Amino acid sequence: MPFTKPILISGGGISSLLLASSLRSNNIPFIIYERDASPSFRAQGYRLRLSNEGLDAIEAALPPEKWEKFWAACGKTGGGDLAAYNAITGETLEAGGGLVTLITNVRPENMNDSDVMFGWTMGGSPGVIEPPNDNYTMVGKPAADIAKHLSRNWHPRFKPLFDNMVEQESAFWKITCSSPDGVPEWPNEPRVTVIGDAVHSMTPAGGIGANTAVRDSELLGRLLAQAGEFKEGITAAYEKEMRVYGSEAVKTSFRTAQGSLGVVPDLSRTIDPQNV
């Protein structure tokens, strides 16, 4: 029999909303529960970088008209090679070896599109610091002042990035990451599963967190739609496949963060999933 009770989705992040869109397209009822009052209720990062895998997942989960609207609204970075710069001297370095790197995010067919836009991703040395007094809720001018202090010795060509920042939108961003050992095994619960950061949170290094999250949404939504009703084994099949690509994504993100940002895990804050 078809789904008669709604699927309950906890959290209104990107993976939850894409899953909901997939369910709606297949006439599967759902309810989303979100504690934040608005998208701007708290600082939540600065952008989403979508690769081919992420874009393919979103396109597969959305109906054509919504996909076209989404794609038209996306900012698209330019094609070409990476350009890396030493933030202190301003010198151009070999790609991947600098403290400031211009990255690209574009599908192959758009490589020569003259209307694409460019964006910057910055990392410094040591790259990751702890906030004063362990205050991870710091926003606005105090957070902006920290950024300006850390970059005080950077080359003048990069100073406008900080001099012209919108201070009220600045925030101290806490980085959390799942174990680089991979997504753990747990006894499957046929009616409950996890997607997105709830199962494989990762550092922003590599820009693959959102891409992995939307893959979850597409996969779970597709399995539910194919079943047409609740069946034993849906969440187990989803978790089996998700563990493979999710584990690899976390490992890749962690290795990249170690190499580019000097990330060192704070094991005193580690959460044992067996005790949750």
UniProtKB/TrEMBL annotation:
Gene3D superfamilies registered for this protein in UniProt = FAD/NAD(P)-binding domain (3.50.50.60)
Please list the residue ranges annotated as the FAD-binding domain.
Answer: 190-251
Q: Which organism is it from?
A: Pseudopithomyces chartarum
Alphabetical keyword list:
FAD, Flavoprotein, Monooxygenase, Oxidoreductase
Q: Which InterPro entries match?
A: FAD-bd, FAD/NAD-bd_sf
Query: What is the top-level taxon of the source organism?
Result: Eukaryota
UniProt xrefs under PANTHER family? FAD-BINDING DOMAIN-CONTAINING PROTEIN (PTHR47178:SF5), MONOOXYGENASE, FAD-BINDING (PTHR47178)
Q: What is this protein called?
A: FAD-binding domain-containing protein
Question: Does the keyword Flavoprotein belong to this entry?
Answer: yes
Q: List the Pfam families hit by this protein, alphabetically.
A: FAD_binding_3 (PF01494)
GO function term, MF aspect, one: monooxygenase activity
Cofactor dependence is on: FAD
